[in-house]
Design goal:
It is built from 4 helices and 26 strands. With about 450 residues, it is mainly beta. It has 2 domains: about 375 residues, Cupredoxins -  blue copper proteins (Immunoglobulin-like, Sandwich); about 40 residues, no CATH class. A hairpin with a 2-residue loop joins strand 5 and strand 6.
Length: about 450
């Protein structure tokens, strides 16, 4: 999972590291790296103040060392390869082997020291988004500090003054570096571990990429027309589920570093927004929701009681954000009869297939059955299989899986939910039975009704 002390074997940057002396690096906190795309277990503190750790969706928490009262971390900005979902990898920039980088967890009042080594081919910096700190530690290159040159290491020191949910990202060539995936989550836990305590605490970032099918590197000049909308640089079906035991109190922390807002919606439960990047929302100011809109640069913490068993969808409610590898120039062919064109075009393009006449679900079915071969290193627009067939989703989509009898530390996918008898929607075989009617033709409400009998087969 992690690799230690072999970090400088990475050659993807094409950058000499002679400017970083081995003696100087030996005095810094050990570099810890991970390339796994799986959700890793929470990192329980073995030193420093106690806290209840978070679980990073498809990610991990960065270890630290204690040094004379400081909690010391070591971040390395570098090129990384991120599996977006099985079948597709992206050549990104990130931290410590991943994009987003590892989550940093500290406690309110901690003295924090973060070493940042630049393994990129250009200058960088890190801005600690939402933190109260000395101006010279704010990480805006040219304004509050010199940029970190390739091969150099800078150190940031400040007190974690305010509990809450934050982010980190560059403030140097920000357009390029954030489009390439440079970002990470930060959690400052309250001094009192029992304050707003929950049973399960998840965190992830919303980010987006524009990667043409067959290519590996994002386009950095895209402003709005992204084709991969991701949770922590992963798309469905590569996004792990949020797992909860029945009646667990669950917190999900979300940060948005895309170029647009995202209405995040959860099925089966209502939740309250309990925190922003500005702090905790007072209990009297909270209200129930099933969708909360997260604007660019914002953090939101939502909480709910996982009272309903099942596999509940959790997704952005912008429909184009739950698809993969979209083509913005694809024409709409709904209702267009293409049958007379098949023979003509087939003579010129043997592999041509008509699609889109009845909707786009047929495209995902063809891709899954391999009838429609995909270009190298891309994904079907809609994908994913469930216990009842195709899910036909992608992008910013995953599930909240609520079960009975899960151990407190068990975050593994429990598999598909088995619905109790009589609790599933079902098809009917012989049409819909007519309702009981009065002699005047009205139903129980007294309304006049015209009954249209169903046509065609109504069964599964």
């Amino acid at each position: 999972m992690f690799t230690r002390r072999d970090f400088f074997k990475f050659a993807t940057a094409g950058l000499a590291i002679g400017s970083v002396s081995k003696a100087a690096m030996a005095a810094l906190p050990e570099i810890v790296s991970s390339s796994s795309a799986d959700t890793q277990s929470p990192l329980h503190p073995s030193t420093g103040r106690p806290y209840n750790p978070v679980v990073t969706l498809n990610g991990w928490t960065l270890p630290w060392r204690m040094n004379k009262g400081f909690k010391e971390f070591h971040l390395v900005a570098e090129p990384v390869v991120r599996e977006v979902a099985p079948g597709m990898k992206a050549h990104l920039w990130g931290y410590n082997g991943q994009s987003p980088g590892p989550t940093i967890e500290v406690v309110e009042g901690d003295l924090v020291r973060i070493y940042v080594t630049n393994r990129l081919p250009e200058v960088t910096s890190i801005h600690w988004h939402g933190q109260r700190l000395p101006n010279g530690m704010d990480g805006v290159s040219g304004l509050t500090q010199p940029a970190i040159e390739p091969g150099k290491t800078f150190v940031y020191e400040f007190e974690a003054k305010r509990a809450g949910t934050f982010m980190y990202h560059p403030h140097a060539d920000e357009m390029t570096q954030m489009a390439m995936g440079m970002m990470g989550s930060w959690v400052t836990h309250p001094r009192n571990p029992k304050f707003m305590q929950v049973d399960r605490d998840y965190i992830f970032l919303l980010n987006a990429y524009d990667i043409d099918p067959g290519s590996y590197r994002p386009k950095i000049n895209t402003m709005l027309d992204f084709n991969l909308w991701t949770f922590n640089s992963r798309v469905f079906p590569g996004i792990d589920p949020f797992v909860a035991n029945k009646n667990d109190r669950v917190r999900i922390r979300v940060g948005n570093l895309t170029m647009t807002n995202h209405p995040i919606h959860m099925h089966g439960h209502e939740f309250t927004v309990t925190g922003t990047d500005g702090g905790w929302v007072p209990p009297t100011a909270r209200w129930p929701e099933v969708t909360t809109d997260i604007a660019v640069g914002q953090m939101r913490s939502i909480e709910f009681v996982a009272s309903e068993l099942g596999d509940w969808a959790f997704h952005c409610h912008k429909s184009h954000h739950t698809m993969n590898a979209m083509g913005h120039q694809v024409p709409t062919l709904l209702g267009v009869d293409q049958s007379d064109l098949m023979d003509k075009i087939g003579n010129l393009i043997p592999d041509y297939m008509a699609m889109g006449q009845t909707g786009m679900a047929d495209m995902s079915a063809m891709a899954r059955s391999m009838e429609m071969p995909l270009p190298e290193n891309t994904l079907p627009m809609m994908t994913g299989e469930g216990p009842y067939g195709a899910i036909d989703m992608g992008g910013m989509f995953t599930t909240v899986k609520v079960r009975n009898g899960l151990a407190k530390a068990d975050f593994r996918d429990p598999g598909p939910y088995v619905h109790p008898k009589g609790t599933s929607a079902y098809g009917v075989e012989n049409g819909i039975p007519e309702p009981e009617r009065k002699e005047d033709g009205s139903n129980e409400t007294g309304l006049e009704m015209t009954v249209r009998k169903p046509s065609g087969n109504m069964s599964h």
